[in-house]
Structure formats: C-alpha cells, structure tokens
C-alpha cells in the first residue's frame, strides 16, 4: 500500500501508434513481448492495465508494413510465429492479472491482444471485428485458436467469414467482456477493478493463473499445495480469525 492506503503494484501498458488508431507494427509486437516478460518477472507487479492511447484500443496491424514481408511464406511465418505470437504468448504466460481497457476500434490484432487478458472492460463506443478477408488473407493458426477459444466458434466464424463487426453489447452478450460502460465510467471502473485485484493476495493470483493454464492445456497442476506454509496463506487465515483486514 502507498501512503494514502491505495494498493501499489498496478502497471499500465499503453498501445501507441499515433494517427493509425494504435495499429500494431512489428516493433510494437516485439516491445509487447519484452514488456510482459518483464512484468511476469517483477515480483512487485500485482495487476496490469493495457489500453490504447487516445480514442481506440487497437485497429489491427499496421498494413503499411505488409508489402515488405507478407508475400513470402518464410518471412510471413516469421512475422506470425515470432513477432505476433511472441507478444501474445507473453501476455498469456504472464502470471500477473491483466485487465484490458477497451474503447473505440478493437480489430484484428486488438481482438487478439484483448483475448489474452483476464478481465475485459469496455466502453459502449467499442467495436470489434477481424475483417482480414477484405485484405485477402486468413488468420494465422495459433491466433485463430486463441480467438475462437475466447469468442466461441460461431462468433469467430462470423468475424472471419462474414467480416462481421460487433458492438460492445453484442460482445458482452456472449460473455467475452463485462457489461459496457460510458466513456466517462470506463476509466473509473478500470481503476476500481485494478485496485481490488492489487489489494488481494498476489501469490494467490499468480497461482490461480498458473492453474488455469495447466487445466486449459490438459496438463496436471504441479505441486498444487506447495503454498501451504507461505506467508500470504498464514496472513490471510490469521487476519480472518483476528477480524482484521489482511496485509498482503
């Protein structure tokens, strides 16, 4: 806690590409990976908020870069398997809870990034889709598996085969995100949610994320009860019995 009693350890990550609705460049994908790997290894981090600078979350990929690498299978594979998946996997592998704060355009790469997050809070202005069929190419396999898992098969098919664009209320109706908020309410709710998460036991959050990843992949959970004698476990139980707030 800081001197005002507010939870510490909240990390903000801004997606920024001015003038292009924060479309992702190759450099940005690599930076995303580096940032989330650093957060994962930072024991002081308790919650991450990722958002788009300005009025949009992320409008997709920066198409101005595409002619330099998309027309050769080897360079195209390197882009998707190394750059894009490297960034997405770093979010998925991060043990710190991640909140996506979404307004405006959330297309293609934006949907992929948001689908990696644990909590998705959205403004009523947000719009979602992956209309890459208009550009003549499919979604890469690992990215499609991620998106279909998060959205459900029917919505993913409509995004890709129909180039359908969905409203925030439609996305909430399928359970992909929380109920939409006004643009004014969104930052307040993001701050409240991040503070709640950061005030709770960070070890429990990290272990929950590790367990969910193991269960999703069908792997056994390694040493699931190794936390038994940990400081946080003792503090949480002790605080409850002593009728006081725990100090994590």
Structure description:
It holds the Pfam family ECH_1. It comes from Comamonas jiangduensis. Keywords: Lyase. The chain is α/β, with parallel strands linked by helices. It folds into two domains: 10-197, 2-enoyl-CoA Hydratase, Chain A, domain 1 (Alpha-Beta Complex), CATH 3.90.226; 201-241, no CATH class. The chain is built from nine helices and seven strands. The strands form two sheets. A four-stranded parallel sheet has the order 1-2-3-5, with helices on both faces. It has a three-stranded mixed sheet with strand order 4-6-7. The longest helix has 20 residues, at 73-92. Residues 1-5 have low confidence and may be disordered.
Task: Please describe the topology of this protein.
Blueprint: E1 10-15, H1 26-40, E2 47-52, H2 73-92, E3 98-102, E4 105-107, H3 109-115, E5 119-122, E6 127-129, H4 141-151, H5 153-161, E7 165-167, H6 168-173, H7 185-199, H8 202-217, H9 231-241
Parallel strand pairs: 1-2, 2-3, 3-5, 4-6
Antiparallel strand pairs: 6-7
Helix pairs in contact: 1-2, 4-5
């Amino acid at each position: 806690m800081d001197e005002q009693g507010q939870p510490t350890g909240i990390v903000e990550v801004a997606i920024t590409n001015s003038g292009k609705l924060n479309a992702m460049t190759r450099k940005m994908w690599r930076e995303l990976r580096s940032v989330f790997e650093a957060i994962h290894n930072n024991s002081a981090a308790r919650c991450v908020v990722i958002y788009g600078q300005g009025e949009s979350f992320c409008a997709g990929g920066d198409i101005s870069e595409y002619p330099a690498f998309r027309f050769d299978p080897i360079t195209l594979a390197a882009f998707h398997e190394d750059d894009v998946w490297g960034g997405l996997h770093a979010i998925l592998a991060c043990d710190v809870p991640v909140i996506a704060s979404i307004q405006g355009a959330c297309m293609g790469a934006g949907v992929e990034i948001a689908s990696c997050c644990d909590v998705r809070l959205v403004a009523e202005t947000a719009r979602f889709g992956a209309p890459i069929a208009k550009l003549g190419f499919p979604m890469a396999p690992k990215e499609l598996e991620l998106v279909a898992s998060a959205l459900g098969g029917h919505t993913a098919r409509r995004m890709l085969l129909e180039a359908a664009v969905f409203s925030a209320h439609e996305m909430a109706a399928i359970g992909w995100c929380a109920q939409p908020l006004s643009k004014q309410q969104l930052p307040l709710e993001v701050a409240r949610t991040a503070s709640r998460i950061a005030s709770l036991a960070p070890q429990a959050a990290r272990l929950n994320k590790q367990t969910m990843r193991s269960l999703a992949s069908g792997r056994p959970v390694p040493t699931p009860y190794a936390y038994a004698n940990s400081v946080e476990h003792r503090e949480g139980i002790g605080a409850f019995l002593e009728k006081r707030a725990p100090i994590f």
